[in-house]
Amino acid sequence: MRSRENYTPFIATGLALTAAILIVFQIYLFFEPTRIQSVSAADKNLAEKEGRKLYAENCASCHGERGEGKLGPALNSKGLLKTTPDELLFNLTRTGVPSTVMPAWGQPFGGPLTDQQVAHVVAFMRAWEPDAPEIKPAVTAPDPVRGATIFANACFVCHGENGQGSARVPAINDAKRLKDFDDAWYRDVIAHGRPAKGMPTWGTVLAPQQITDLVALIGAWRDGRAVSPAISFARHISNALYALRQFDRIDAAFYLSAAMALATKPQQDEIAAVMEFVKANRLSEAESRLLALLPPSEMGKEVYESNCAACHASDGSGGMGKNLRGNKFIKSKPDAELIAFLLAGRKGTAMNPFKGILTDEQLGYVIALMRTWVFFAALGVWLAANKLLA
After folding, report:
1. CB 3.0 to 4.6 Å from 314: which of 13, 146, 309, 387, for a disulfide?
2. Cross-strand partners of 205
3. Assigned domain for 366 exists
4. Are the C-beta atoms of 367 and 300 separated by less than 8 Å?
5. Has residue 4 been placed in a domain?
6. Is 11 a domain residue?
7. Mean pLDDT, range 62-75, rounded to an integer
8. What is the CATH number of the domain that holds 160?
């Protein structure tokens, strides 16, 4: 007879290995939370370090080196950081704030930063929270005109001019509808949206004050008041030119009609002629006629006010940025070099690149405006010198 094989050593070995695996697994489970915490802390420190560098290069000039506020509002504020989630800080930084000097910093919106870099900036700001001071926000009265300007830039596409509605959505500026819903309802709808009905969530794009201004506009409509947006004649002409270059006759006609309401009699005659060219689909002739309507320096005022005035002052006299009036650098460089400089920016300073934000033509308008300042500054010096010699 064959003797039975003895499996006992194999079983004992298997049990020993199983026990060893269980022991090692328990040791792993014991130390894993500490390891994860250590890795998370390292990732957080790295993000804050990168964010500190990005903040210093891009944000400190407006918001202060420590977020204390400067041209822009204070960010190192306990109240703001406590009530503002990371998602909202990320979105506002990424997309910018419409109708303010806060530009879009995210690359998908024409800015210089990747989403990861924006997240690093938010991580750096969040690190302020434990020791952030209590800063009472400046109280700004609700302004329906500001609200109308925001509405004209961001809302009328769906809701129609002055809230009169469109084929897609019913009118907001409707006496019965305005009576049925109060300001709190409109504030919530603007902030949270109604996704199932196609209404986006504007609370991640607009600042609370901007939503307040929009609600003030709705309140003015409820009272039967008409409110005009604070959009200049030059901005309407610039928008009309853009529409013509996109072969968009409908938008071109819309902006030309808006410009007509702000135009002088001679300008109205020119706009009427341009509108006839648009109706006849003679868009090149319409563009040429429109370009002759305003000199480049006048077109530059609108572009400058929106993109440069916050740092260099509305009259170019300087502030956080350099004085542009009589500026030797501007005087010594040809237009092409100045456009290249503005597109590239100046690394290591608050002068960020305008590439992807403004076109060469728009920058040319700004330069034309600055040339007038240089000329008049030189003329003032010449007149002063001649007065002394007289």
Report:
1. 309
2. none
3. yes
4. yes
5. no
6. no
7. 85
8. 1.10.760.10
SS3 readout for 75-102:
CCCHHHHHHCCHHHHHHHHHHCCCCCCC
Query: Residue 237: CB partners within 8 Å, gap ≥ 6?
Result: 255, 259, 290, 293, 294, 299
Cα distance between residue 202 and residue 150, in whole Å: 12
Contacts of residue 203, defined as CB under 8 A and 6 or more positions apart, other chains included, come to: 88, 190, 191, 192, 193, 211
Q: By residue range, what is the domain housing residue 307?
A: 297-389
- Write the CA distances from 294 to 180, 252, 314, integer angstroms: 45, 16, 19
Do 124 and 170 sit in the same domain of this protein? no
User: Is the distance from CB of 163 to CB of 173 less than 8 angstroms?
Assistant: yes
Per-residue model confidence as pLDDT tens digits over 189-236: 999 988 888 888 888 888 888 999 999 999 999 999 988 888 888 888
pLDDT tens sequence across 72-93: 788 999 988 988 999 999 999 9
3-state secondary structure of 205: coil
Spatial CA neighbour of 263 closest among 288, 240, 286 = 240
Mean pLDDT for the stretch of residues 175-190: 91
On whether both 96 and 163 belong to a single domain, the answer is: no
Asked if residues 154 and 166 have their Cβ atoms less than 8 Å apart, the reply is: no
pTM of the model: 0.53
Structural domain ending residue among the three candidates 171, 195, 222 = 222
SS3 13: helix
Please list, in sequence order, all residues whose beta carbon lies within 8 angstroms of the beta carbon of residue 214, skipping any fewer than 6 positions away: 147, 150, 151, 155, 186, 190, 206
Give the number of domains in the chain.
4
| pLDDT score at 326 | 77
Q: Is the pLDDT of residue 377 over 60?
A: no
Cα four-point dihedral sign 324, 328, 334, 336: negative
One domain, residues 263 and 180: no
